């Protein structure tokens, strides 16, 4: 967002009330590492190549730049909308036209796949 756009979002933004679940305080049951529904069973070999190791995912939580981006209420709403959407792939294509979402995606990618240093002479 531009500064005026962000201000407009901030002024008009009303937080959505949180819905209480029947099992208050309990999230979804953890998926077992092995067995029915295990991540390894769901991912194909092609998907496995795109999988980001847990170690690199943890770097996302340590990034100040990413945390600063996530303070933007408009970005947070985009992410919530995407998370709750039925057709995530078409919505993702649409969101990739949003400069704020592209900035977020680029930030995430730069953390998990840092650009290789080009044209660096060995010492």
Structural shape = globular
**How far is the N terminus from the C terminus?**
42 Å
Q: Which oligomeric form is depicted?
A: single chain
| Secondary-structure element series | HHHHHHHH
Task: Name the beta content range.
Answer: under 5%
H/I helix tally: 8
Helical fraction equals 55-70%
The radius of gyration computed from the alpha-carbon positions, rounded to a whole number of angstroms, is 18 Å
Supply the helix-strand structural class.
mainly alpha
* Overall number of strands: 0
Low-confidence parts, pLDDT < 50 over ≥5 residues? 21-25, 31-38
Mean pLDDT over the full residue set: 74
Main sheet: strands, sense, barrel: none
Write up what this structure looks like.
With 123 residues, this protein is mainly alpha-helical. It has a domain at 1-5 and 52-113. It has helices at 3-12, 39-42, 45-50, 54-62, 64-69, 73-84, 88-95, 99-112. α6 (73-84) runs antiparallel to α7. It comes from Helopsaltes ochotensis (Middendorff's grasshopper-warbler).
Give a brief rundown of this model.
Mean pLDDT is 74; it is low at 21-25 and 31-38. The chain is 56% helix and 0% strand.
Describe the SSE topology:
Layout: H1 3-12, H2 39-42, H3 45-50, H4 54-62, H5 64-69, H6 73-84, H7 88-95, H8 99-112
